[in-house]
Design goal:
single chain; about 50 residues; transmembrane; alpha+beta; transmembrane helix; membrane
Length: about 50
């Protein structure tokens, strides 16, 4: 099983396809996770838990 499939490859056993949708989706998820981590850290500092 392959993790990332190239756009011009003919296969069916892959998890992600290397195309524009996958790149945008990956970047969006990473940005949201970073924002959540920052929000947790800021709330911890604000509430003096750290």
């Amino acid at each position: 099983m392959k993790f990332v499939k190239e756009e011009n490859e003919e296969r069916r056993d892959y998890i992600f396809q290397k195309n524009t949708k996958t790149r945008i989706g990956t970047r969006l998820i990473v940005v949201i996770l970073i924002l959540l981590i920052i929000a947790v850290a800021v709330s911890g500092i604000f509430l003096e838990l750290f």
